[in-house]
UniProtKB/TrEMBL annotation:
Its main location: membrane. It comes from Lates calcarifer. It is found in: Membrane. Gene3D superfamilies: Immunoglobulins. The chain crosses the membrane at residues 232-252. One of its GO terms (molecular function) is transmembrane signaling receptor activity. InterPro entries: CD300_family_receptors (IPR050671), Ig-like_dom (IPR007110), Ig-like_dom_sf (IPR036179), Ig-like_fold (IPR013783), Ig_sub (IPR003599). This is Ig-like domain-containing protein.
Amino acid sequence: VENQSSSALAVLFCLTLVTDMAVHLLSKVSVRAGDSITIPCLYDSKYRNHVKYLCKGYYWSSCSYTVKTNQPYSSGKFSISDDKTQRIFPVTVKDLMDKDTDYWCAVEINRGDDIRKYFHLSVTRGKPSLYVDHQEMTGFNGDSITISCKYTTAGEIKWCRLGRNCVTGSSGSIDGTTVSINSSVPNVFTVTMSGLTTQSSGWYLCVKGDFQMPVHVTVTEKPTTIDVRNPIISLSLLIFIAMVALFIWFMLRKHSKSVLFFNKSKSYHVILSIYS
């Protein structure tokens, strides 16, 4: 019984640790030297009001602060923000160099060890192992978007929502949004998300083997447009155009009469001056 209790406590401790570390599925990202990359760091809701930061270095004990949420613009190379609704703090590293490889997403704990999660940037001079043309994608409510995930490495293909579930086959769903994956083109797999809602907004991951590439999706309401095929709208539009045309004609006619009156008056005064 004692051994079972100890095992149960150990499992509970591990589960708590995993929850606290809270950055799921993102550990290795391939990037081209000279480019920029944004890494989304996910945290537990109990740390919503804590300071978050990015620490640089392979060893946690010797890593150095680069940027913090209470000092978000302390460096031109690094930037950070905090989305407390999604519980994600994105960190951006610009102008990547060969030495920009080892980082930690971290949350400050006032009385205890800071919560942290290591990730590795594989900086290359050639094509990255997994990449997208744009990390930011936008779509409208009810529509669909397609993301092209390009790769040069082997391994299983996945499309995941950060901190949630993944689609590993040719189709599936994430939070009610239909997902289809097409891998018929060599070195590219395309992900189509259909039936978008505003709740679909958030961070996702292209996954190929050991590599992940974060992609941020923003879904907004579709702008309202006038349907000219509607008879009532068409009639209203015609009436409005006719009224505008009538107003313009009236103003031009009034102006013409004023010019004519002015010219007649001017001619009368000229004639009067000659005879006088």
